[in-house]
Design a protein that fits this description.
- By secondary structure, the chain is α/β, with parallel strands linked by helices.
- It folds into two domains: 3-243 and 349-361, 3-Layer(aba) Sandwich (Alkaline Phosphatase, subunit A); 247-343, Gyrase A, domain 2, CATH 3.30.1360.
- The chain has 17 helices and 20 strands.
- The strands form six sheets. A six-stranded mixed β-sheet has the order 8-7-9-1-10-20, with helices on both faces.
- Helix 9 packs parallel to helix 11 (207-226) and helix 10 packs antiparallel against helix 11.
- It is globular, with a radius of gyration of 20 Å.
- This is Phosphodiesterase.
Length: 365
């Protein structure tokens, strides 16, 4: 079971045509889905004492899908499709001659170069969203997320179809989510980003991360306590996280450059667009047991991306590099900020893929 099945399962209780409850979630006419960025199942289980409310709910988990990256998982939340179908195949990926940063919708490495006109979000991800389908079926659909997300390329690409309410912090996120489900047949997607940010900077499980987890637990509890009767609160995440181990630097390893035309992705998973078939063997020998290095065809046949559409196939790259254990493949010169982080995600370890699926039902009056 993957993150792509969460929203269809929730919408089935709201009588949205074609929405199947494959996850067997309790039906409800008022639903809040709280997505906590970076809240991996293994991290939550390991630090349960810091999150008594969340840990007191069912200990169930699903898969974030591959790559275990925010934009990819949010696209699966919004479309009900896996990465090989919706085509948002990672943090950065090639679309034609551009390498798109899918979080900022800018040119990779240049956050000032807005690509929303050159790479129209609704064209890059053309599938109808589940929010659009639900709204067409008469459901009041809302998204409660940070204010800058309102007209972002990613929101347009994968979360379009909802009424957007911008937030500045915990307080208006909680109250906005509750207000969004006051009426019958209402669905609210609420997003919290800061646990992931703290994990990237200080590391998952750090003192700073644990305190942020306590705040997140309080946020979820306060939303639950304010929901009207007959409501359902579902809590999930987009990925887990690992603390960086060995850092392998592409920018200082000339051997890795040979035959590589474009390198995309992020430190835990890289896409190589190549000019030479020798790249595969060179990378396999160099990385050894530190990574799975597959051709695109091998990764697709292994089911890493789920079903793969013509839309997505070229975005994956000729060679896929998925780092093992806690190794990261950084770019100290091209990506100095990203390369210096402590926590990472994107690859195929259980710490990154396993995400919680927690449910709290509010009894009917």
């Amino acid at each position: 079971m993957t993150i792509a099945e969460v929203v269809p399962s929730l919408l089935s209780g709201l009588d949205v045509p074609g929405a199947d409850n494959t996850l067997g979630l309790p039906p409800a006419r008022r639903v809040v889905l709280l997505l906590v960025d970076g809240l991996g199942h293994e991290l939550l289980r390991a630090h349960a004492s810091h999150a008594p409310f969340l840990s007191g709910l069912s200990d169930r988990h699903i898969s974030a899908g591959f790559p275990s990256s925010t934009a990819t998982s949010l696209a699966s939340i919004g479309t009900g499709l896996r990465s090989g179908e919706h085509g948002i195949v990672g943090y950065t990926f090639a679309v034609g001659d551009e390498v798109l940063n899918s979080l900022t919708w800018t040119r990779a490495g240049d956050h000032q170069h807005d690509l929303r006109k050159a790479l129209v979000p609704e064209v890059v991800q053309p599938h109808p969203t589940l929010f659009e389908r639900a709204a067409a079926a008469g459901v009041a659909v809302s998204a409660v997320a940070p204010m800058p997300h309102r007209s972002s390329g990613l929101t347009r690409a994968v979360l379009r179809g909802s009424w957007f309410r911008g937030t500045a912090g915990f307080g208006d996120l909680a109250l906005g989510a509750v207000a969004a489900v006051r009426q019958d047949r209402s669905f609210c997607y609420a997003y919290h980003a800061d646990l992931d940010t703290i994990g990237h900077i200080y590391g998952p499980g750090s003192e700073e991360w644990l305190l942020q987890l306590e705040f997140v637990d309080s946020l979820a509890a306060r939303i639950a306590s304010r929901l009207p009767s007959g409501s359902l609160l579902a809590v999930t995440a987009d990925h887990g996280m690992v603390t960086a181990g060995e850092r392998i630097d592409f920018d200082t390893e000339p051997l890795l450059w040979q035959g590589v035309r474009v390198i995309a992705g992020e430190p835990r998973v890289r896409y190589l667009h190549v000019q030479s078939d020798e790249v595969l063997s060179v990378w396999r020998e160099f990385l050894g047991d530190r990574a799975d290095v597959l051709t695109r065809a091998e990764a697709v046949d292994a089911g890493w991306f789920g079903p793969v559409s013509p839309l997505a196939i070229d975005r994956i790259g000729d060679v896929v590099v998925a780092m093992k254990d806690a190794h990261v493949l950084v770019r100290s010169q091209a990506e100095p900020g990203l390369s210096g982080l402590t926590g990472f995600h994107g690859s195929r370890t259980s710490a990154e893929l396993a995400i919680p699926l927690l449910v709290h039902s509010v009894a009917s009056a």
